[in-house]
Amino acid sequence: MYDAIVVATDGSETGTAAVDHAIGLASRFDADLFGLTVLESRTDYDNAIVDPEEVDRRRREQAEEVMADLESAAAEAGVDVETAVESGVPYEEIIAAATARDADAIVVGSRGRSSFKRALLGGTVDAVVRYADRPVVVVDGPDEDGDGSETGNDSVPE
């Protein structure tokens, strides 16, 4: 069913849940796994009084740590993985990676590090789901029980 899977993560809780899910799929189907994190070209610091080179250096270090964690988790599960840190518009880079690797699916977390920012910008996940030409698996994080509806809340034990 799956020969190649792309997982995109920013290291958030839902991003980590997406990584775990993608590793499970890759293990089950003996699929190639490609992990990706994207340094967004526009940042919260664009107009701040900080050294942009220092901000870029720190963001890249954090992204490389996220990819190192993915590599460790994959190795522990016996799954080979290739990883990359890209720069650009996240949803475009995620879709481009899936296209370049002829991935059968893209796995993403349901929200990134800033849900407020997501609401303002329209959301990377929303854009991936909307524009991808292949299945997108959206994974909730560990604390996302139910959908917030009355029925959902009634069905989730407290």
Q: What can you tell me about this protein's structure?
A:
Helix content is 47%, strand content 20%. The protein contains six helices and five strands, in the order E-H-E-H-E-H-E-H-H-E-H. Helix 3 crosses helix 5 (124-131).
Radius of gyration, whole Å: 16 Å
Question: How much helicity do the residues have?
Answer: 40-55%
CATH class call: Alpha Beta
Quote the CATH topology: Rossmann fold
H/E element string?
A: EHEHEHEHHEH
Number of individual domains: 1
Uncertain ranges: 115-122
Count of DSSP E strands? 5
The CATH fourth-level homologous superfamily: HUPs
Trace the largest sheet across and list its strands. Answer: 3-2-1-4-5
> What would you call the shape?
globular
Percentage of residues in DSSP E strands: 15-25%
Protein structure class: alpha/beta
Q: Report how far apart the termini are.
A: 37 Å
The overall pLDDT average reads: 85
Which architecture per CATH? 3-Layer(aba) Sandwich
Protein name: Nucleotide-binding universal stress protein, UspA family
Family: Belongs to the universal stress protein A family.
InterPro entries: Rossmann-like_a/b/a_fold, Universal_stress_UspA, UspA
Organism: Natronobacterium haloterrestre
